[in-house]
Design a protein that fits this description.
- By secondary structure, the chain is α+β, with helices and mostly antiparallel strands.
- It has helices spanning 2-42, 59-66, 70-77, 106-113, 117-128, 179-189, 196-204, 231-239, 244-251, 263-266, and strands at 46-55, 82-90, 93-100, 141-145, 158-161, 167-174, 207-215, 218-225, 268-269, 271-272.
- It is built from 10 helices and 10 strands.
- A 5-stranded antiparallel β-sheet has the order 5-1-3-2-10. Strands 4-7-8-6-9 form a 5-stranded antiparallel β-sheet.
- Strand 7 (207-215) and strand 8 (218-225) form a beta hairpin.
């Protein structure tokens, strides 16, 4: 009888052990299948970028955002398909950059982001100050991309490919409060409209990627360069390249700047929090 009971236990262990192993194997197969399908559709190094802009003159907004460990958020955010989350500041403006799974849209991204316990506490705290984080349908419009080939809506997100090691600059400036000029500024930076020589100048100086996003009259530029790029050295050389002076004079009519301002004087650094 004892031997019979032992045999039954062994049989059950084998049966359910096999089922559990099969279940785990099936789950792994599904995950691998989803990963393979995503890579086949978008490419191995593809991701979506979403950006948001928040204006707040409440000094505690910066205190809350600075108190966040963005590295910890990144480690938790990966569970929701978010690879990286960063916040940059200039004056009362806060610029958020999210890089995520290529299958996510803006709403899905923020829904996942807000499930992180630290983020949930942050947003609840900010709301007590009357400061509300941008909604999922308020991702920013991208008006320029270096070598852009396809146009994506802010809600779908900008499909991008990892460019490897780089140094990042995030700059901002204000455009003139004139709807016609802003419309013309958009058109001047739309796909295929930037002057070819200006594009060549950027690449010659070591720019690997550049984007411009728009929030009302606030233009925000993300520039990724070669890791050894030095703006103090490159800036003066850049401004002397062919057609560069003419381009800067042309776009100056859209910008709230002092006449004759250099690139560094026009575009103000946003500091990462």
């Amino acid at each position: 009888m004892k031997n019979c009971n032992t045999l039954i236990i062994i049989m059950f262990t084998l049966l359910f052990g096999c089922k559990e192993a099969s279940k785990q194997s099936n789950t792994t197969s599904v995950l691998e299948k989803n990963r393979d399908e995503k890579e086949n559709k978008y490419g191995k190094d593809a991701f979506r970028r979403f950006t948001y802009f928040l204006n707040s003159n409440n000094p505690r907004t910066e205190q809350f955002l600075k108190s966040i460990d963005w590295g910890t958020i990144d480690r938790k955010a990966i569970n929701f398909g978010i690879y990286r989350a960063n916040c940059y500041k200039k004056g009362n403006g806060y610029f958020f950059i999210f890089d995520a799974e290529p299958t996510l849209n803006s709403e899905e991204l923020l829904n996942g982001f807000q499930q992180i316990d630290t983020v949930k506490y942050l947003m609840e705290s900010m709301e007590t100050l009357g400061v509300k984080f941008p909604a999922g349908n308020n991702a920013l419009e991208r008006i320029y991309k270096l070598d852009q080939k396809v146009i994506y809506t802010p809600f779908i997100g900008q499909l991008k490919t990892d460019i490897g090691s780089h140094k990042r600059f995030v700059w901002t400036l204000l455009l003139k409060e004139d709807p016609k000029l802003i419309s013309e500024y958009r058109k001047a930076h739309s796909m295929g409209q930037a002057w070819p020589q200006i594009t060549e100048n950027m690449k010659a100086m070591g720019v690997k990627d550049m984007e411009i996003y728009l929030s009302g009259t606030q233009a925000i530029l993300i520039m990724d360069t070669e890791p050894n790029f030095d703006m103090e050295v490159a800036g003066p050389k850049w401004q002397k390249l062919p057609k560069e002076r003419e381009w800067q004079e042309y776009v100056a009519k859209f910008q709230r700047i002092q006449p004759g301002s250099s690139i560094q004087e026009k575009w103000q650094d946003m500091q990462v929090l």
